[in-house]
Amino acid sequence: MELGVRLEQNQILAPRMEQSVRILQMDSVQLGEYLKELALENPVAEVEPPPQREQKEKLAQRKLEWLENQTRREQENMGYYDDDGDLTPEQNTPAPQDESLTDHLLAQVESAAVPRALAAAARYVIGCLDDNGYLKADPEQMRAKAGACDALLERAIALVQSFDPPGVGARDLAECLCLQIPASDALARRLARDFLPEIAKKRVGVLAAKTGASAGEVEAAVARIRRLNPKPGALYGAHVVAHYITPDIVVTSFGDHYNVMLCEFAYPQVRLSDSYLQIARETADPEVIKYIGEKIDQVNWVIKCIENRNRTLVEVARAIVRQQERFFRYGPQHLGVLRMREIAGLVGLHESTVSRAVRGKYLQCAHGVYPLRYFFVKGPEHGGAVSSETVKYKLRALIDTEDHTHPFSDRALCELLAADGISISRRTVAKYRGEMGVPGASGRVRG
Q1: What DSSP state is assigned to residue 73?
Q2: pLDDT value for 309
Q3: How does strand 269-272 pair with strand 45-48?
C-alpha cells in the first residue's frame, strides 16, 4: 500500500442537466407521473388536466381521417404449431376474462344432475387441470388423492370433458381436438388422432394415401381441424392487465404532405401557483421570499426542460418521417435503412441525445403504432441499402407464390433475390426465414 496523487478527468452532470436528461427520456405517461410528484413536493407547482384547446378538435378530426384510411396489416401464414409445439387455431372465441376456468367448470358441476360422489370426483379433476384446460396429472397420484376407484374417476373425467369449453379435460392434444370434432366427422377425427405431425407439415398427399381419402377431402378435414382450439382453458381467467400505449407523436397524411404532431394532451400541464406568487409579492420576510423564489425557479426549469423535450422529439420525428417516407406512404415492407447518426446529423444533435429522445416513445400513423426505435434499421448482412425488413417481405412474397409441390430451397431463394438486385448469402436467407417462422423447403411441401 502506498499514498500517492493521481489526476483523473471525469464528466459529472450538474443536477439541473441530469434533470433535463431525465425529462428528455420520459414518455407521456412517465412525464405525467413526474409532474404529479413535482406538485406534491413543490407547493408553487400546480398541475392541471390537459387543456381543452380548439386544436384538440382538429387533432381528433385528423385522427379520424387516418383511421378511415388505415391499412390492414398483412397477416403472415402461421405454421400449424406455435412455439410450444401446439396447434395454432385460425380463430378463437373470446371468453369472459373476469371468470376463471375453474369457476366456469365448477358452476357446471353444480348444475349437473349427477350423484354426489361423481360430482365430488369431478371437482377434484377440475382442480387438476392446468391453465390450458389439460389434465396432465399422474393417474396413480390422482387415484390415491381422490380416494376414488378407476371407474368413478374415468366417469368424472368424461363428465368434465362434456363441459364447456369443448376440449377441456383432455390428456393430450389429439384427445383435445377429437373432443371438439363431431362423431360423424370420421376423417377429421382420425387425422387429429393419428396424423398430427403430418398435418403440421402439410403432407396432404401422404395423408390421402394413408387414409384412402381424396386430397380435396383431406384438405377440407384439415381446414376443419385448424378451426379448433388447442388450448381451451387459455381463454378463461387470464387476468392479464392490458398495457395501453399512449403515442407521443401522431403522423397524418394530407396528400403529399405529412403532418407530425406532438400529443400534448397525453400528460397534464404544470404552471406556477397564483396564490404563492401573490404571497411572494406581498411579504417582506426574506426567508419566505427566498423559499418561494427557489421553488419558482425549480418549476420554471422543469417547464423549460419539457419544452426542450417536446421540441427535440418533434424535430427527430420529422426527420424520421422524411427519411422513411416510403414506409409512411406504402407500408412496413418499404422500411429503409436508417441509422441514428444520420438523424443526429440532420437535426444538429448528438447521437446520444437522439437516442434519449426516442427512448420509450411511440409514433402513431396509418399503419399502426410503432416505437420510434423501430424506424432505425441496420442494413442486412449484404451491406446494401435495402433493410432487413424489406428483404423479409420479399422472401415472404417469393415463398407465398412458390409451387407447393416443389418449394424453393434457400439457395434458390438466394438466387431469386439476387436477380431482384439483392445480394444476400444463403445463410442469411435461412436466418431470415427462421425469424419469420417459415420452415425449410422440405417442411413446405404439400401433396
Answers
A1: P
A2: 93
A3: antiparallel
pLDDT number for residue 386: 63
Model pLDDT, residue 80 = 36
Is position 190 within any domain? yes
- Write down the residue that cell numbers 407523436 correspond to: 249
Cα–Cα distance list, 58 to 71, 255, 333, 336 (Å): 22, 17, 30, 31
Within 252-339, where are the H helices?
A: 274-282, 286-323, 325-330
Q: Is position 85 within any domain? A: no
pLDDT for the residue 312: 94
Q: Based on the structure, what is the number of domains in the chain?
A: 3
Q: How far apart are CA 265 and CA 269, in angstroms?
A: 9
H-helix or E-strand spanning residue 253: strand 249-254
Environment class of 159 (CB within 10 Å of its CB; exposed 0-12, middle 13-18, buried 19+): buried
Q: Are residues 358 and 430 in the same domain?
A: no
**Domain boundary pick from 375, 399, 415:** 375
Question: Could you give the CA distance from residue 379 to residue 432 in angstroms, rounded to a whole number?
Answer: 13
| Ranges of the chain with pLDDT below 50 | 53-54, 66-95, 97, 238-241, 381-383
Residue 1 placed within a domain = no
The per-residue pLDDT for range 28-87, each reduced to its tens digit, is 888 888 998 998 888 888 888 765 544 555 555 555 554 444 433 333 333 333 333 344
Please tell me the predicted confidence (pLDDT) of residue 347: 92
Residue 253 domain boundaries: 16-52+246-375
Ramachandran angles phi, psi of 240, nearest 5°? -85, 125
Question: Do both 363 and 392 map to the same domain?
Answer: no
Give the residue carrying C-alpha cell 370433458. Answer: 161
